[in-house]
Design brief:
Layout: E1 7-12, E2 16-25, E3 28-38, H1 48-63, E4 87-92, E5 98-103, H2 110-118, E6 123-129, H3 137-147, E7 151-154, H4 164-178, E8 187-190, H5 197-204, E9 210-212, H6 226-243, H7 247-253, E10 259-260, H8 261-275, E11 281-287, E12 292-298, E13 301-307, H9 322-330, H10 338-350, H11 359-380, E14 399-406, H12 415-426, E15 430-436, H13 442-451, H14 453-460, E16 466-473, E17 483-490, E18 496-502, E19 506-509, E20 516-523, E21 538-543, E22 549-552, H15 564-580
Parallel strand pairs: 1-4, 4-10, 5-6, 5-7, 7-8, 8-9, 11-14, 14-15, 16-22
Antiparallel strand pairs: 1-2, 2-3, 11-12, 12-13, 15-16, 17-18, 17-20, 19-22, 20-21
Helix pairs in contact: 3-4, 4-5, 8-13, 9-11, 11-12, 13-14
């Protein structure tokens, strides 16, 4: 099969369907344009093809190209004399939430690994059954029936290890499936002790379709998730095809290469981790109405974690939890009661595509983004690689680059606001670069890379992505107002500028976009900027972003006043410092 050089990539999200065109311009692959339409996966249309059609039609209007013939059939492959494309890719995250029940031996080992496994796709955990449960078997069966999972994942027992205990849990699954009407019986993935596969097959014969996977814990203190992860993704896609009208036809049209949007995003983050020149990883965040995705990669090793519980979606049962409302309230720049916040979020769940207009609505959404970024990245950090953590106050490693995608960061968004949301939510340490996926193409580029790897590489290096700027975040402990960092900047013209940074500062040093400079950092009082050890300085080359060069010396973790009014004042002060760009 020839490598396509002009590709339309479709990304079907829960609120919008986007059609992006990638093609050759002046000998290099570039992002050309994008058509956008409301997603048609849900009522009243209930067919994703309509949204795809509208998005591509808009792309035709923007580019003056023809992608359909008079019968609304795709012009494919590229025909001589026709301005069309010769390749298609697609990712998807829309549709009914995939429901999974977890069955294992111990919550600390097999269940923990199973949760880590299924966190790589958007899904809802309906039940967790383990030997630790004190409930009676009939109660466990009833709970499993009430959860109505689409899939049951069974794990537990090392190879040649526990067998009787595993079969005890399999028996609960057998009874639950036996009591479920045949047309609604969930499938079973077995990823436990390989020595008893025949016994498991015999026990579940006639009541469940069973897929056998390599043991996710084949021996003590060893985890093997990748083979099972691929099968989980496959099951998720099959769920989409079965429950979304038009998904089967789309998948067939693109050669059965449909993948979850989060998987495409993860592929891009993994690739970027291969090309960084420093011994640091890459962090990616994708905020969608269906889920929040955190992807981290270090030297090609990817950690992908998906959080539907932080999404503004009707399927999110936790969206109005008091703990979530309290967390959002922490980042509010306007004093609002929990009931007011709850009322807005409830309406947003019903209409996830609604764009906030009022000042209070915008404040709620911005606070929500900061809270979920903080909570999700903090939780996901337990799965991150063993990269360099500057000290115990930093919950995640220092990163070379942070890539952010989502509606709130899309083209036309306030760059100062985007920068502040990322700084407050992720609280990076050391020296890193903030990059925005303003066109929301990261996920589909992961799928495009399967068809044409060079296209993905060149577009990731193009101006389709914008840099907000390099962020310097010294980490250490001292009272506010004390000097903690000296910065010397050497321009190409030979000019030298010097700055002294104090603890508590959040400042921007003016630096023209794309302009490269040499910089020397000298931490004071044992502060750490990621140069190898506390107090150690060094030289580095950096370039200006949309905000210039950002210095965040507020400390880690950020400390906010308990008093509501003082907290609002503090948040506004930080924002004004970025707006004024004064040092």
């Amino acid at each position: 099969m020839e490598t396509p050089h002009s590709i339309i990539a479709i990304d079907i999200r829960s609120t919008s369907t986007r059609a992006s065109l990638f093609d050759i311009v002046d000998g290099k692959y570039r992002f050309i344009a994008q058509g956008d339409a409301p997603t048609s996966a849900y009522s009243p249309i209930n067919d994703i093809r309509y949204g795809v059609l509208q998005a591509v039609r808009e792309l035709e209007n923007i580019t003056y190209r023809s992608f359909f013939d008079s019968n609304e059939e795709w012009i494919f492959p590229n025909k001589k004399g026709m301005m069309d494309v010769d390749g298609f890719a697609a990712t998807i995250s829309a549709g009914r939430m995939f429901k999974i029940a977890l069955v294992g031996l111990s919550e600390e080992v097999s269940i923990a690994s199973a949760q880590k496994l299924i966190r790589t796709i958007p899904c809802e955990i309906t039940n967790i059954l383990s030997l630790n449960d004190r409930e009676k078997i009939d109660t466990q069966i009833r709970n499993l029936l009430q959860g109505e999972p689409d899939l049951i994942l069974i794990a537990g027992g090392t190879d040649q290890g526990a067998s009787h205990a595993v079969m005890k849990m399999v028996e609960i699954v057998r009874l639950a499936n036996y009591l479920t009407p045949s047309e609604r019986r969930p499938g079973v993935l077995y990823a436990g002790n390989q020595e008893i596969q025949n016994k498991v097959s015999t026990a579940l014969k006639g009541v469940a379709k069973v897929e056998f996977l390599p043991n996710i814990h084949p021996r003590p203190n060893f985890e093997l998730l990748e083979p099972a992860r691929k099968e989980i993704v496959k099951q998720w896609i099959e769920h989409c095809i079965q429950n979304l009208e038009g998904a089967k036809e789309l998948d067939s049209f693109i050669g059965n290469t449909l993948i979850p949007s989060c998987s495409g995003f993860g592929r891009v983050i993994r690739y970027l981790s291969h090309v960084v020149t420093y011994e640091k990883g890459i962090l990616g965040v994708d905020i969608d109405a269906q889920a929040v995705t955190i992807a981290e990669a270090y030297e090609g090793e990817l950690s992908l974690v998906v959080y539907p519980e932080f999404a503004l979606s009707p399927t999110n049962k936790r969206i109005l939890d008091d703990s979530l409302l309290s967390g959002i309230q922490t980042w509010m720049t306007i004093e609002l009661s929990k009931s007011k916040i709850s009322e807005y979020l409830a309406n947003k769940c019903i209409y996830p595509g609604y764009i906030p207009i009022e000042k209070e609505e915008q404040a709620i959404e911005q606070a929500m983004v900061q809270h979920v970024l903080f909570k999700a990245s903090r939780h996901a950090s337990h799965h991150f690689s063993k990269g360099s953590r500057l000290n115990s106050r930093c919950f995640s490693p220092a990163f070379e680059r942070i890539l952010a995608s989502g509606n709130i960061f899309k083209q036309g968004a306030d760059h100062i606001l985007s920068g502040l949301l990322l700084l407050n939510g992720l609280q990076p340490s050391g020296v890193c670069t903030l990059v925005l996926d303003q066109n929301q193409i990261s996920s589909v580029l992961g799928s495009v890379g399967n068809l044409n790897p060079m296209m993905m590489i060149q577009i990731l290096e193009s101006d389709a992505f914008i840099s907000l700027g390099t962020v310097i975040s010294p980490v250490g402990e001292i009272k506010d107002g004390e000097p903690i960092l000296k910065i010397k900047i050497f321009s190409e013209e030979g000019r030298k500028d010097e700055y002294e940074i104090c603890k508590g500062d959040l400042t921007v040093i003016p630096l023209e976009y794309g302009r490269f400079v040499q910089m020397y950092l000298q931490p004071l009082h044992g502060f750490d900027v990621g140069m190898g050890s506390p107090g150690r300085g060094g030289k580095l080359t950096t370039s200006g972003g949309m905000l210039g060069l950002i210095v965040d010396a507020r400390g880690r973790p950020l400390s906010l006043p308990i008093d509501g009014m003082k907290r609002v004042e503090q948040l506004e002060t930080w924002r004004s410092r970025l707006i004024n760009k004064e040092i």
